[in-house]
Design a protein that fits this description.
alpha+beta; globular; 7 strands
Length: 150
């Protein structure tokens, strides 16, 4: 796990705020798909209601990614390997429990997971990415990445 000293805000912007051009002074803005933890509490059920996330999405074991911060203000990125077709990985509830219990996460947002989930450390792939929604290990081209550099 890499740690980066920077100012980050994990928050929720309404579609109207994003569409109106309000930038809040952000240099970068990343979108997620549901809160995992909000203000120190697991927030999956509330997030599912607010954002219309289906129960199948919440409950399937799959590769997962999250961005958040801990109680010391450190920006954290997490990736859990898995494979949706054989239900290997974490549910969103399991992911939130791990983040809260083992990493003291205060706020975390679920970001795109799936086969494109890949973790690279010092130039080497250290996770088990899948690109064809099969257990085969392979890397997939993606259009966006989240990168933390020391």
């Amino acid at each position: 796990m890499l740690f980066l000293a920077c100012v980050s805000v994990v928050s929720y912007l309404t579609p109207q705020e994003v569409g109106s051009g309000i930038d809040g002074g952000y240099h970068e803005l990343a979108q997620g798909n549901g809160w995992l933890i909000r203000e120190g509490k697991r927030y999956i059920n509330e997030s599912a209601t607010i954002e219309g996330l289906g129960q199948a999405f919440l409950a399937i074991k799959a590769p997962r990614n999250a961005v958040g911060h801990d109680s010391r203000g450190r920006l954290l990125q997490f990736e859990a390997d898995g494979e949706e077709d054989i239900e290997l990985g974490l549910t969103l509830w399991e992911f939130a429990d791990i983040l809260a219990t083992h990493f003291d996460v205060v706020n975390a947002v679920n970001v795109d997971g799936g086969g494109s989930s890949t973790t690279v450390f010092k130039g080497k792939v250290v996770s088990r990415p899948t690109c064809r929604d099969t257990p085969e290990i392979c890397e997939r081209s993606v259009t966006t990445i989240s990168c933390v550099m020391p």
